[in-house]
Amino acid sequence: MPQAVAGPEIERLIQLLGRMPGLGPRSARRAALQLIKKRETLLAPLAEAMRVAAERIVVCRSCGNVDTRDPCTICADHSRDPTMLVVVEDVSDLWALERSGAVKARYHVLGGVLSALDGVRPEHLNIARLVERAAEPGVGEIILALNATVDGQTTAHYVTESLKPLGLTITRLAHGVPVGGELDYLDEGTLTAAIRSRTAF
Amino acid sequence: MPQAVAGPEIERLIQLLGRMPGLGPRSARRAALQLIKKRETLLAPLAEAMRVAAERIVVCRSCGNVDTRDPCTICADHSRDPTMLVVVEDVSDLWALERSGAVKARYHVLGGVLSALDGVRPEHLNIARLVERAAEPGVGEIILALNATVDGQTTAHYVTESLKPLGLTITRLAHGVPVGGELDYLDEGTLTAAIRSRTAF
């Protein structure tokens, strides 16, 4: 236990900052000091933004997204393609896809992936609700936008099995060379996938 | 300007988090999501700790430390050696020395170092107040605990000149091999200093 070098209020701030992802004990101290120095422009507004977030953010009961409304802004957006559901592991993946603007559809956040190692079983994921939503009239395609990891692909297979009785089109993201990627730095699996799925030029 | 992918409350949280030291736009999003997931255990307490800090923390008018009281806990601590003042660049250096427990004295935070490049001149630093404090009866030694950088050493020389009329003992931190340090990884300046200041074994 290191000696407390500042008052209890500052020590508590440092301790809580140190539990944020990406900040350790040392960087938490540096962050606390920077925040205190920028009290008016950063510390007070951030405290308020966090309070508002803590009070008002809810998990969408339909898709698992986080928002200040339930159903979330995306589920409530009637301009989105109602025939597709994009299945993602986590809200961060939903955000990444929204930033790309690649698809104007609704999402379904599983809340993780199956993992024998971490003891994550199907009942821990938001799969039952996905099957319900997929069975709603009008849904024709399920896009599995899961990470190209072993656990992600295992989950994709499990979800596919769960949805099979509905007779929907189930697709997954293409594998290939990332845009801007250099072949020299890519693994063999990606290169093999890119060759196999080559397209006409 | 990337597309807003979440509600305005979440976007604002991400934007403010991204201005924290050590967090960029991408890690701010990850941090925001982690905070939202740990709403009860981290987000709400952190918001409250930040609010308290923003409201109650003041800069000690005597030494420049940050605390919820003025004079700060260290200046008000009568068990500390009243004959010494430890001069540091920043509050983070004060904290580092306090953690080490190396000295039980009071501090003086300059609030930076002289820098021709950054346009930091003596009047921008807390030097006038240092001269006042050093002139108080009972003070016998000023320890310059400034960083061993060019600007730090320039500042040390300037402070020494400013304090010279008072006829106090002025000392600086020893240069040498860091405890646990390997010679192979040290620069020539440090090794030369360590050889010059060698001590009997």
Oligomer: homodimer
What is the first-to-last residue Cα distance of chain A? 63 Å
Which geometry of chain A do the CA atoms define?
A: globular
**Strand residues, percent of chain A:** 5-15%
CATH topology of the largest domain in chain A: Dna Topoisomerase Vi A Subunit, Chain: A, domain 2
Put simply, the count of helices of chain A is: 7
Strand order of the largest sheet of chain A: 4-3-5-6
H/E element order of chain A: HHHEEEHEHEHEH
Classification by helices and strands of chain A: alpha/beta
What percentage of residues of chain A falls in helices of 4 or more residues?
A: 40-55%
| Main beta-sheet annotation of chain A | 4 strands, parallel
- The CATH architecture of the largest domain in chain A can be named as 3-Layer(aba) Sandwich
Largest chain interface and its two residue counts? A-B, 54 and 54 residues
Work out the count of structural domains of chain A: 2
Tell me the number of strands of chain A.
6
